[in-house]
Design brief:
It holds the Pfam family Alpha-amylase. With about 550 residues, this protein is of the alpha/beta class. Among the domains are: about 270 residues, Glycosidases (TIM Barrel, Alpha-Beta Barrel); about 70 residues, Immunoglobulin-like (Sandwich). It contains 14 helices and 21 strands. The strands form 5 sheets. An 8-stranded parallel sheet has the order 11-10-9-5-2-1-13-12. It has a 5-stranded antiparallel sheet with strand order 14-15-16-21-18. A 3-stranded antiparallel sheet has the order 6-8-7, with no helix packed on it. The longest helix has 18 residues. The structure holds alpha-D-glucopyranose. Alpha-D-glucopyranose binds next to loops.
Length: about 550
Protein backbone atom coordinates (compact mmCIF):
# COMPACT_ATOMS: atom_id res chain seq x y z
CA UNK A 1 0.00 0.00 0.00
CA UNK A 2 1.58 3.31 -0.95
CA UNK A 3 0.93 6.63 0.64
CA UNK A 4 1.04 9.84 -1.25
CA UNK A 5 2.61 12.92 0.22
CA UNK A 6 3.48 11.80 3.75
CA UNK A 7 3.62 14.77 6.07
CA UNK A 8 6.02 15.10 8.97
CA UNK A 9 4.70 15.62 12.49
CA UNK A 10 3.21 19.02 13.00
CA UNK A 11 4.95 21.08 15.64
CA UNK A 12 1.66 21.82 17.38
CA UNK A 13 2.04 21.08 21.10
CA UNK A 14 -1.76 21.04 21.39
CA UNK A 15 -2.17 18.28 18.79
CA UNK A 16 -4.00 16.04 21.27
CA UNK A 17 -6.88 18.48 21.72
CA UNK A 18 -8.57 17.46 18.49
CA UNK A 19 -6.65 14.33 17.49
CA UNK A 20 -8.11 11.06 16.30
CA UNK A 21 -6.24 8.29 18.10
CA UNK A 22 -6.36 4.69 16.89
CA UNK A 23 -6.05 2.04 19.59
CA UNK A 24 -3.86 -0.87 18.57
CA UNK A 25 -4.34 -4.05 20.60
CA UNK A 26 -0.84 -5.21 19.72
CA UNK A 27 -1.48 -8.92 20.01
CA UNK A 28 -4.30 -8.74 17.47
CA UNK A 29 -3.35 -6.08 14.95
CA UNK A 30 -0.81 -7.57 12.53
CA UNK A 31 1.55 -10.54 12.74
CA UNK A 32 4.85 -10.07 10.87
CA UNK A 33 6.52 -13.39 11.67
CA UNK A 34 3.68 -15.85 11.17
CA UNK A 35 3.40 -17.13 14.74
CA UNK A 36 -0.28 -16.18 14.95
CA UNK A 37 0.35 -13.27 17.32
CA UNK A 38 0.51 -9.59 16.42
CA UNK A 39 3.83 -7.78 16.94
CA UNK A 40 5.59 -4.43 16.68
CA UNK A 41 7.04 -5.16 13.26
CA UNK A 42 3.51 -5.97 12.09
CA UNK A 43 2.37 -2.54 13.25
CA UNK A 44 5.32 -0.97 11.47
CA UNK A 45 4.34 -2.64 8.21
CA UNK A 46 0.77 -1.40 8.53
CA UNK A 47 1.56 2.23 9.35
CA UNK A 48 0.77 3.31 5.77
CA UNK A 49 -2.74 1.85 6.21
CA UNK A 50 -3.26 3.97 9.32
CA UNK A 51 -1.89 7.03 7.63
CA UNK A 52 -4.25 6.49 4.72
CA UNK A 53 -7.14 5.94 7.13
CA UNK A 54 -6.44 9.45 8.39
CA UNK A 55 -5.74 9.04 12.10
CA UNK A 56 -3.27 11.28 13.93
CA UNK A 57 -1.87 8.96 16.56
CA UNK A 58 -1.76 5.35 17.72
CA UNK A 59 -2.23 4.10 21.26
CA UNK A 60 -0.45 0.79 21.73
CA UNK A 61 -1.64 -1.56 24.48
CA UNK A 62 1.19 -3.00 26.64
CA UNK A 63 3.97 -4.75 24.74
CA UNK A 64 6.36 -4.98 27.72
CA UNK A 65 7.92 -8.14 29.15
CA UNK A 66 5.03 -10.05 30.67
CA UNK A 67 3.81 -13.56 31.46
CA UNK A 68 0.59 -12.40 29.68
CA UNK A 69 -1.81 -13.47 32.39
CA UNK A 70 -3.85 -10.35 31.61
CA UNK A 71 -2.84 -9.73 28.00
CA UNK A 72 0.27 -7.78 29.03
CA UNK A 73 -1.40 -5.64 31.73
CA UNK A 74 0.80 -7.68 34.06
CA UNK A 75 4.22 -6.17 33.47
CA UNK A 76 7.43 -7.89 34.61
CA UNK A 77 9.85 -5.37 33.06
CA UNK A 78 8.64 -1.86 32.24
CA UNK A 79 11.70 -1.04 30.16
CA UNK A 80 11.74 -3.87 27.65
CA UNK A 81 9.64 -5.46 24.92
CA UNK A 82 8.23 -8.96 25.37
CA UNK A 83 9.87 -11.36 22.87
CA UNK A 84 6.32 -12.24 21.72
CA UNK A 85 6.07 -8.72 20.31
CA UNK A 86 9.69 -8.16 19.22
CA UNK A 87 12.57 -6.12 20.58
CA UNK A 88 13.31 -2.61 21.75
CA UNK A 89 14.99 -2.16 18.37
CA UNK A 90 11.66 -3.02 16.67
CA UNK A 91 9.94 -0.41 18.83
CA UNK A 92 12.51 2.21 17.85
CA UNK A 93 12.19 1.37 14.16
CA UNK A 94 8.39 1.49 14.42
CA UNK A 95 8.28 4.88 16.15
CA UNK A 96 10.79 6.35 13.71
CA UNK A 97 8.64 5.27 10.78
CA UNK A 98 5.46 6.44 12.49
CA UNK A 99 6.86 9.89 13.06
CA UNK A 100 8.09 10.08 9.47
CA UNK A 101 4.48 9.43 8.39
CA UNK A 102 3.15 12.11 10.73
CA UNK A 103 1.71 9.59 13.21
CA UNK A 104 2.25 10.03 16.93
CA UNK A 105 2.67 7.13 19.36
CA UNK A 106 0.99 6.81 22.76
CA UNK A 107 2.01 3.87 24.94
CA UNK A 108 0.19 2.26 27.83
CA UNK A 109 1.65 2.56 31.31
CA UNK A 110 0.48 0.20 34.04
CA UNK A 111 1.32 1.77 37.42
CA UNK A 112 -1.35 0.33 39.72
CA UNK A 113 0.13 -3.16 39.78
CA UNK A 114 3.04 -5.19 38.45
CA UNK A 115 3.16 -8.81 37.38
CA UNK A 116 3.82 -11.32 40.13
CA UNK A 117 6.94 -12.18 38.09
CA UNK A 118 8.31 -8.64 38.53
CA UNK A 119 11.65 -8.76 40.44
CA UNK A 120 10.20 -6.53 43.17
CA UNK A 121 7.37 -8.95 43.90
CA UNK A 122 9.66 -11.94 43.77
CA UNK A 123 11.95 -10.18 46.26
CA UNK A 124 8.96 -9.35 48.47
CA UNK A 125 7.89 -12.99 48.56
CA UNK A 126 11.42 -14.15 49.37
CA UNK A 127 12.11 -11.51 52.04
CA UNK A 128 9.11 -12.32 54.23
CA UNK A 129 6.81 -10.38 56.58
CA UNK A 130 8.06 -7.07 57.95
CA UNK A 131 10.77 -6.70 55.30
CA UNK A 132 11.48 -3.52 53.34
CA UNK A 133 10.82 -5.50 50.15
CA UNK A 134 7.19 -6.13 51.17
CA UNK A 135 6.57 -2.42 51.67
CA UNK A 136 6.55 -1.72 47.96
CA UNK A 137 3.33 -3.77 47.73
CA UNK A 138 0.27 -3.99 49.97
CA UNK A 139 0.91 -6.94 52.22
CA UNK A 140 -1.16 -7.28 55.40
CA UNK A 141 -1.97 -9.80 58.09
CA UNK A 142 -5.33 -11.48 57.86
CA UNK A 143 -8.26 -11.31 60.23
CA UNK A 144 -9.48 -14.15 62.43
CA UNK A 145 -7.71 -16.06 65.16
CA UNK A 146 -5.00 -17.36 62.82
CA UNK A 147 -5.15 -14.62 60.23
CA UNK A 148 -7.07 -17.00 58.01
CA UNK A 149 -9.50 -14.37 56.69
CA UNK A 150 -8.56 -11.61 54.23
CA UNK A 151 -7.62 -8.24 55.80
CA UNK A 152 -10.82 -6.61 54.50
CA UNK A 153 -13.84 -7.17 52.24
CA UNK A 154 -12.39 -5.76 49.02
CA UNK A 155 -13.17 -7.60 45.80
CA UNK A 156 -11.14 -8.08 42.67
CA UNK A 157 -12.56 -6.41 39.56
CA UNK A 158 -12.15 -9.83 37.96
CA UNK A 159 -14.30 -11.43 40.68
CA UNK A 160 -13.52 -13.05 44.02
CA UNK A 161 -11.56 -11.57 46.92
CA UNK A 162 -8.89 -8.96 46.20
CA UNK A 163 -6.49 -10.70 48.57
CA UNK A 164 -4.36 -13.81 48.19
CA UNK A 165 -2.52 -15.50 51.04
CA UNK A 166 1.14 -16.44 50.66
CA UNK A 167 2.71 -19.49 52.36
CA UNK A 168 4.10 -17.50 55.31
CA UNK A 169 0.56 -16.45 56.23
CA UNK A 170 0.43 -12.82 55.04
CA UNK A 171 -1.98 -11.61 52.37
CA UNK A 172 -1.32 -9.29 49.42
CA UNK A 173 -3.75 -7.03 47.62
CA UNK A 174 -4.60 -7.44 43.94
CA UNK A 175 -7.51 -5.42 42.62
CA UNK A 176 -7.29 -7.51 39.46
CA UNK A 177 -5.84 -11.01 39.00
CA UNK A 178 -3.70 -12.59 41.78
CA UNK A 179 -0.89 -12.37 39.20
CA UNK A 180 -1.22 -8.54 39.36
CA UNK A 181 -0.17 -7.45 42.89
CA UNK A 182 -1.01 -3.80 43.69
CA UNK A 183 1.89 -1.48 44.35
CA UNK A 184 2.13 0.74 47.43
CA UNK A 185 2.11 4.23 45.97
CA UNK A 186 2.90 5.79 49.34
CA UNK A 187 6.40 4.31 48.96
CA UNK A 188 8.98 6.76 47.54
CA UNK A 189 10.76 4.06 45.54
CA UNK A 190 7.54 3.25 43.69
CA UNK A 191 7.07 6.90 42.76
CA UNK A 192 10.69 7.32 41.69
CA UNK A 193 10.59 4.14 39.62
CA UNK A 194 7.59 5.20 37.55
CA UNK A 195 8.93 8.69 37.00
CA UNK A 196 12.02 7.02 35.60
CA UNK A 197 9.92 4.67 33.43
CA UNK A 198 8.11 7.69 31.99
CA UNK A 199 11.46 9.26 31.09
CA UNK A 200 12.67 5.98 29.59
CA UNK A 201 9.86 6.00 27.00
CA UNK A 202 9.83 9.77 26.55
CA UNK A 203 13.54 9.53 25.69
CA UNK A 204 12.55 7.00 23.02
CA UNK A 205 10.23 9.53 21.50
CA UNK A 206 6.78 8.52 22.69
CA UNK A 207 4.22 11.30 22.39
CA UNK A 208 2.03 10.27 25.27
CA UNK A 209 0.82 7.70 27.77
CA UNK A 210 -2.49 6.00 28.40
CA UNK A 211 -2.54 5.47 32.14
CA UNK A 212 -4.07 2.16 33.12
CA UNK A 213 -6.35 2.21 36.19
CA UNK A 214 -5.35 5.85 36.74
CA UNK A 215 -7.77 6.19 39.64
CA UNK A 216 -6.46 3.19 41.54
CA UNK A 217 -3.00 3.82 42.85
CA UNK A 218 -3.90 5.24 46.25
CA UNK A 219 -5.97 3.24 48.72
CA UNK A 220 -7.76 4.79 51.70
CA UNK A 221 -5.63 4.84 54.86
CA UNK A 222 -6.32 1.86 57.09
CA UNK A 223 -7.80 -0.15 54.18
CA UNK A 224 -11.41 0.17 55.44
CA UNK A 225 -14.15 -2.28 54.43
CA UNK A 226 -16.53 -1.34 51.63
CA UNK A 227 -19.41 -2.71 53.66
CA UNK A 228 -20.86 -5.10 51.16
CA UNK A 229 -19.59 -7.77 48.82
CA UNK A 230 -20.84 -10.50 46.52
CA UNK A 231 -20.59 -12.90 49.46
CA UNK A 232 -22.80 -10.82 51.76
CA UNK A 233 -25.28 -9.16 49.40
CA UNK A 234 -24.85 -10.81 46.02
CA UNK A 235 -23.85 -7.43 44.60
CA UNK A 236 -20.36 -7.10 43.22
CA UNK A 237 -18.43 -4.07 44.40
CA UNK A 238 -17.40 -3.38 40.81
CA UNK A 239 -21.02 -2.37 40.18
CA UNK A 240 -20.01 0.90 41.82
CA UNK A 241 -17.36 1.60 39.18
CA UNK A 242 -18.14 5.01 37.77
CA UNK A 243 -21.18 5.33 40.04
CA UNK A 244 -20.09 5.32 43.68
CA UNK A 245 -17.12 5.66 46.02
CA UNK A 246 -14.87 2.76 46.83
CA UNK A 247 -11.98 3.00 49.32
CA UNK A 248 -9.60 1.66 46.69
CA UNK A 249 -10.45 4.04 43.86
CA UNK A 250 -10.41 7.77 43.18
CA UNK A 251 -8.78 8.83 46.43
CA UNK A 252 -7.80 12.51 46.55
CA UNK A 253 -4.14 11.74 47.10
CA UNK A 254 -3.86 10.13 43.66
CA UNK A 255 -3.76 13.62 42.21
CA UNK A 256 -0.37 14.26 43.85
CA UNK A 257 1.07 11.59 41.57
CA UNK A 258 -0.14 13.37 38.44
CA UNK A 259 1.02 16.73 39.69
CA UNK A 260 4.48 15.17 39.87
CA UNK A 261 4.18 13.57 36.42
CA UNK A 262 3.04 16.67 34.56
CA UNK A 263 6.31 18.62 34.85
CA UNK A 264 8.13 15.56 33.50
CA UNK A 265 5.89 15.48 30.42
CA UNK A 266 6.19 19.23 30.01
CA UNK A 267 9.97 19.09 30.15
CA UNK A 268 9.99 17.31 26.77
CA UNK A 269 9.31 19.19 23.51
CA UNK A 270 6.40 18.62 21.15
CA UNK A 271 3.39 18.31 23.44
CA UNK A 272 3.79 14.99 25.30
CA UNK A 273 0.44 14.07 26.80
CA UNK A 274 -1.29 11.60 29.10
CA UNK A 275 -4.82 10.20 29.06
CA UNK A 276 -6.37 8.59 32.12
CA UNK A 277 -8.37 5.42 32.14
CA UNK A 278 -10.20 6.53 35.26
CA UNK A 279 -13.56 5.71 36.78
CA UNK A 280 -15.04 8.25 39.14
CA UNK A 281 -18.35 8.70 40.88
CA UNK A 282 -19.36 11.77 38.87
CA UNK A 283 -18.19 13.58 35.74
CA UNK A 284 -17.05 16.36 38.09
CA UNK A 285 -14.73 14.02 39.94
CA UNK A 286 -13.46 12.60 36.67
CA UNK A 287 -12.69 16.13 35.48
CA UNK A 288 -10.33 16.58 38.43
CA UNK A 289 -7.82 14.35 36.64
CA UNK A 290 -7.43 16.83 33.82
CA UNK A 291 -6.05 20.32 33.69
CA UNK A 292 -2.80 22.20 33.22
CA UNK A 293 -1.14 20.70 36.30
CA UNK A 294 -2.38 17.11 35.94
CA UNK A 295 -3.36 15.02 32.94
CA UNK A 296 -4.44 16.14 29.49
CA UNK A 297 -7.41 13.85 29.05
CA UNK A 298 -9.62 11.24 30.70
CA UNK A 299 -11.76 8.87 28.64
CA UNK A 300 -15.43 9.73 28.65
CA UNK A 301 -16.91 6.27 29.17
CA UNK A 302 -20.39 7.75 29.60
CA UNK A 303 -20.42 8.22 25.84
CA UNK A 304 -19.53 4.56 25.35
CA UNK A 305 -22.27 3.61 27.82
CA UNK A 306 -24.96 5.76 26.19
CA UNK A 307 -27.76 3.73 24.63
CA UNK A 308 -28.89 4.19 21.05
CA UNK A 309 -31.18 7.15 21.57
CA UNK A 310 -30.97 10.84 20.82
CA UNK A 311 -31.79 11.73 24.44
CA UNK A 312 -29.15 9.48 25.87
CA UNK A 313 -26.45 10.82 23.54
CA UNK A 314 -27.47 14.40 24.11
CA UNK A 315 -27.30 14.04 27.86
CA UNK A 316 -23.77 12.62 27.92
CA UNK A 317 -22.49 15.02 25.27
CA UNK A 318 -23.84 18.02 27.18
CA UNK A 319 -22.35 16.86 30.47
CA UNK A 320 -18.97 16.04 28.97
CA UNK A 321 -18.74 19.33 27.08
CA UNK A 322 -19.74 21.34 30.16
CA UNK A 323 -17.03 19.65 32.22
CA UNK A 324 -14.40 20.17 29.57
CA UNK A 325 -15.22 23.86 29.40
CA UNK A 326 -14.73 24.20 33.14
CA UNK A 327 -11.38 22.45 33.20
CA UNK A 328 -10.17 23.84 29.88
CA UNK A 329 -9.38 20.43 28.43
CA UNK A 330 -11.05 18.76 25.47
CA UNK A 331 -13.51 15.93 25.76
CA UNK A 332 -12.27 12.49 24.86
CA UNK A 333 -14.81 10.36 23.04
CA UNK A 334 -14.68 6.60 22.76
CA UNK A 335 -17.14 4.01 21.48
CA UNK A 336 -15.16 0.79 21.88
CA UNK A 337 -11.96 -0.53 23.40
CA UNK A 338 -10.29 -3.82 24.31
CA UNK A 339 -12.34 -4.18 27.52
CA UNK A 340 -15.85 -3.65 26.22
CA UNK A 341 -18.21 -5.37 23.84
CA UNK A 342 -17.80 -3.86 20.37
CA UNK A 343 -20.42 -1.21 19.66
CA UNK A 344 -21.83 -2.93 16.56
CA UNK A 345 -23.00 -5.65 18.94
CA UNK A 346 -23.96 -3.33 21.79
CA UNK A 347 -26.24 -1.41 19.46
CA UNK A 348 -28.15 -4.51 18.38
CA UNK A 349 -25.73 -6.65 16.34
CA UNK A 350 -26.34 -7.73 12.74
CA UNK A 351 -27.43 -5.15 10.21
CA UNK A 352 -29.11 -2.90 12.75
CA UNK A 353 -26.03 -2.82 14.97
CA UNK A 354 -23.78 -2.07 12.02
CA UNK A 355 -25.99 0.75 10.74
CA UNK A 356 -26.06 2.32 14.18
CA UNK A 357 -22.32 1.89 14.67
CA UNK A 358 -21.66 3.65 11.39
CA UNK A 359 -23.96 6.48 12.41
CA UNK A 360 -22.34 6.72 15.85
CA UNK A 361 -18.96 7.09 14.15
CA UNK A 362 -20.23 10.15 12.29
CA UNK A 363 -21.64 11.51 15.54
CA UNK A 364 -18.37 11.03 17.41
CA UNK A 365 -16.17 12.39 14.64
CA UNK A 366 -18.25 15.57 14.35
CA UNK A 367 -17.93 16.40 18.05
CA UNK A 368 -15.26 18.79 19.32
CA UNK A 369 -12.38 17.19 21.18
CA UNK A 370 -10.37 14.04 20.72
CA UNK A 371 -11.78 10.75 19.42
CA UNK A 372 -10.35 7.31 20.16
CA UNK A 373 -11.05 4.56 17.64
CA UNK A 374 -10.57 0.91 18.51
CA UNK A 375 -8.89 -1.23 15.86
CA UNK A 376 -11.41 -2.89 13.57
CA UNK A 377 -14.26 -0.48 14.22
CA UNK A 378 -13.38 1.11 10.89
CA UNK A 379 -14.23 -2.30 9.37
CA UNK A 380 -17.51 -2.56 11.26
CA UNK A 381 -16.34 -5.64 13.16
CA UNK A 382 -18.87 -7.08 15.61
CA UNK A 383 -18.05 -8.79 18.91
CA UNK A 384 -17.26 -12.48 18.39
CA UNK A 385 -19.77 -14.08 20.72
CA UNK A 386 -19.13 -17.75 20.04
CA UNK A 387 -15.45 -18.25 20.78
CA UNK A 388 -14.89 -21.74 22.22
CA UNK A 389 -14.34 -21.50 25.97
CA UNK A 390 -11.02 -23.34 25.79
CA UNK A 391 -9.58 -20.60 23.59
CA UNK A 392 -10.63 -17.73 25.83
CA UNK A 393 -7.70 -16.16 27.62
CA UNK A 394 -9.21 -13.34 29.66
CA UNK A 395 -8.41 -14.04 33.35
CA UNK A 396 -11.81 -12.63 34.27
CA UNK A 397 -13.49 -15.47 32.37
CA UNK A 398 -12.67 -18.16 34.92
CA UNK A 399 -13.69 -15.97 37.86
CA UNK A 400 -16.86 -14.36 36.49
CA UNK A 401 -17.79 -16.13 33.26
CA UNK A 402 -17.46 -12.76 31.52
CA UNK A 403 -14.79 -12.52 28.89
CA UNK A 404 -13.28 -9.68 26.91
CA UNK A 405 -11.80 -11.97 24.27
CA UNK A 406 -14.61 -11.38 21.77
CA UNK A 407 -13.42 -7.83 21.05
CA UNK A 408 -9.78 -8.93 20.79
CA UNK A 409 -10.02 -11.22 17.77
CA UNK A 410 -7.27 -10.47 15.22
CA UNK A 411 -7.97 -8.05 12.39
CA UNK A 412 -8.86 -9.52 8.97
CA UNK A 413 -6.64 -7.87 6.37
CA UNK A 414 -7.23 -9.83 3.18
CA UNK A 415 -7.89 -13.15 1.49
CA UNK A 416 -10.47 -15.90 1.66
CA UNK A 417 -8.89 -18.17 4.23
CA UNK A 418 -8.17 -17.78 7.94
CA UNK A 419 -6.26 -15.95 9.32
CA UNK A 420 -7.31 -13.51 6.58
CA UNK A 421 -3.94 -11.89 6.01
CA UNK A 422 -3.29 -11.35 9.72
CA UNK A 423 0.13 -12.97 9.17
CA UNK A 424 2.25 -13.63 6.08
CA UNK A 425 1.33 -16.46 3.69
CA UNK A 426 1.63 -19.87 5.30
CA UNK A 427 1.51 -18.51 8.85
CA UNK A 428 -0.02 -20.12 11.91
CA UNK A 429 -3.70 -19.56 12.62
CA UNK A 430 -4.24 -16.47 14.73
CA UNK A 431 -4.28 -16.85 18.54
CA UNK A 432 -8.03 -16.31 18.46
CA UNK A 433 -9.85 -17.42 15.30
CA UNK A 434 -11.72 -14.91 13.18
CA UNK A 435 -15.19 -16.04 12.05
CA UNK A 436 -15.53 -16.96 8.37
CA UNK A 437 -17.94 -14.05 7.90
CA UNK A 438 -15.00 -11.71 8.46
CA UNK A 439 -13.71 -12.59 4.98
CA UNK A 440 -16.16 -10.03 3.68
CA UNK A 441 -15.09 -7.46 6.28
CA UNK A 442 -11.36 -7.53 5.60
CA UNK A 443 -9.47 -4.38 4.69
CA UNK A 444 -8.91 -5.68 1.16
CA UNK A 445 -12.61 -6.53 0.77
CA UNK A 446 -13.65 -3.00 1.77
CA UNK A 447 -10.89 -0.75 0.41
CA UNK A 448 -12.11 1.26 -2.54
CA UNK A 449 -15.67 -0.09 -2.23
CA UNK A 450 -18.10 2.82 -2.13
CA UNK A 451 -20.33 2.66 0.93
CA UNK A 452 -18.11 0.23 2.85
CA UNK A 453 -17.50 1.02 6.50
CA UNK A 454 -13.80 1.50 5.82
CA UNK A 455 -14.52 4.07 3.10
CA UNK A 456 -17.03 5.80 5.38
CA UNK A 457 -14.35 6.22 8.08
CA UNK A 458 -11.79 7.37 5.52
CA UNK A 459 -14.19 9.97 4.14
CA UNK A 460 -15.25 11.22 7.58
CA UNK A 461 -11.64 11.50 8.75
CA UNK A 462 -10.63 13.33 5.59
CA UNK A 463 -13.43 15.86 6.06
CA UNK A 464 -12.70 16.19 9.77
CA UNK A 465 -9.15 17.20 8.93
CA UNK A 466 -9.99 19.54 6.13
CA UNK A 467 -13.24 21.21 7.09
CA UNK A 468 -12.75 24.50 8.94
CA UNK A 469 -15.91 23.95 11.01
CA UNK A 470 -14.55 20.67 12.37
CA UNK A 471 -11.04 21.91 12.99
CA UNK A 472 -10.14 22.84 16.52
CA UNK A 473 -12.17 22.45 19.63
CA UNK A 474 -14.97 25.02 19.16
CA UNK A 475 -18.40 24.37 20.68
CA UNK A 476 -21.59 22.98 19.19
CA UNK A 477 -25.06 24.43 18.72
CA UNK A 478 -27.94 22.01 19.14
CA UNK A 479 -30.71 22.12 16.54
CA UNK A 480 -34.18 21.05 17.61
CA UNK A 481 -35.50 19.22 14.59
CA UNK A 482 -37.75 16.54 16.01
CA UNK A 483 -38.07 13.61 18.39
CA UNK A 484 -35.54 10.83 17.98
CA UNK A 485 -33.25 13.16 16.10
CA UNK A 486 -29.96 14.48 17.32
CA UNK A 487 -28.66 17.47 15.41
CA UNK A 488 -25.93 19.97 16.10
CA UNK A 489 -23.89 22.46 14.13
CA UNK A 490 -20.37 23.72 14.23
CA UNK A 491 -19.29 26.92 12.53
CA UNK A 492 -16.09 28.49 11.22
CA UNK A 493 -15.09 31.02 8.59
CA UNK A 494 -18.59 31.47 7.24
CA UNK A 495 -19.26 27.76 6.87
CA UNK A 496 -21.49 25.55 8.97
CA UNK A 497 -21.39 21.82 9.34
CA UNK A 498 -24.45 20.09 10.80
CA UNK A 499 -24.44 16.50 11.97
CA UNK A 500 -27.86 14.83 12.09
CA UNK A 501 -28.43 11.39 13.62
CA UNK A 502 -31.74 9.58 13.25
CA UNK A 503 -32.34 7.27 16.22
CA UNK A 504 -36.11 7.22 15.62
CA UNK A 505 -38.21 4.57 13.88
CA UNK A 506 -38.89 6.23 10.55
CA UNK A 507 -36.96 8.07 7.88
CA UNK A 508 -36.95 11.84 8.35
CA UNK A 509 -36.71 14.67 5.90
CA UNK A 510 -33.86 17.03 6.69
CA UNK A 511 -33.77 20.38 4.97
CA UNK A 512 -32.30 23.77 5.53
CA UNK A 513 -28.89 22.51 6.54
CA UNK A 514 -27.25 22.52 3.13
CA UNK A 515 -25.59 19.80 1.11
CA UNK A 516 -24.84 16.34 2.50
CA UNK A 517 -21.10 15.69 2.38
CA UNK A 518 -20.98 12.28 4.01
CA UNK A 519 -23.71 9.88 5.13
CA UNK A 520 -23.71 6.51 6.83
CA UNK A 521 -26.55 5.29 4.56
CA UNK A 522 -27.61 6.47 1.11
CA UNK A 523 -29.82 9.59 1.27
CA UNK A 524 -32.61 10.25 -1.19
CA UNK A 525 -33.57 13.74 -2.31
CA UNK A 526 -37.13 14.78 -1.59
CA UNK A 527 -38.70 18.14 -2.35
CA UNK A 528 -35.41 19.96 -2.01
CA UNK A 529 -34.56 18.21 1.25
CA UNK A 530 -32.95 14.86 1.99
CA UNK A 531 -34.51 11.77 3.47
CA UNK A 532 -32.35 10.45 6.31
CA UNK A 533 -33.09 6.73 6.87
CA UNK A 534 -33.58 5.19 10.32
CA UNK A 535 -30.40 4.31 12.21
CA UNK A 536 -28.23 6.59 10.15
CA UNK A 537 -26.39 9.89 10.29
CA UNK A 538 -25.15 12.48 7.84
CA UNK A 539 -23.09 15.65 7.78
CA UNK A 540 -24.57 18.64 5.92
CA UNK A 541 -22.58 21.66 4.88
CA UNK A 542 -23.67 25.24 4.29
CA UNK A 543 -21.28 27.93 3.19
C1 LIG B 1 -7.49 -1.77 32.57
C2 LIG B 1 -7.22 -2.40 31.23
C3 LIG B 1 -7.65 -3.82 31.29
C4 LIG B 1 -6.86 -4.54 32.36
C5 LIG B 1 -6.97 -3.82 33.69
C6 LIG B 1 -5.92 -4.29 34.65
O1 LIG B 1 -8.82 -1.68 32.88
O2 LIG B 1 -7.85 -1.66 30.22
O3 LIG B 1 -7.52 -4.47 30.05
O4 LIG B 1 -7.34 -5.84 32.50
O5 LIG B 1 -6.77 -2.44 33.56
O6 LIG B 1 -4.65 -3.83 34.28
Amino acid sequence: MTVSNPSPLTSDADWWRSAVVYQVYVRSFADSNGDGIGDLQGIRERLPYLRELGVDALWLTPFYTSPMVDGGYDVADYRDVDPMFGTLGDFEAMITDAHALGLRIIVDIVPNHTSDRHPWFQAALAAGPGSAERERYLFADGKGEHGEQPPNDWESIFGGPAWTRVPDGQWYLHLFDPAQPDLNWRHPQVRAEFEDVLRFWLDRGVDGFRIDVAHGMIKAEGLPDVGFSSMTTGRRQSELLGKGRLPYFDQDEVHDIYRAWRPILDSYPGGRMAVAEAWAETPQRLARYIGPDELHQAFSFDFLDATWSADSFRKVVDTALAESTIVGAPTTWVLSNHDRQRHVTRYGDGDVGLRRARAAALLMLALPGCAYLYQGEELGLPEVLDLPDELRQDPAFLRTGESRDGCRVPIPWSGDLAPYGFGPAGSELSWLPAPTTWRALSVAAQAGVPGSTLELYRAALRIRHQHPALAGTGGITWQEIGPGLLAFSRHADGSTLTCVVNTGDSAVRVDGHGTPIVASEALTEQDGGHLLPVDSAAWFERR
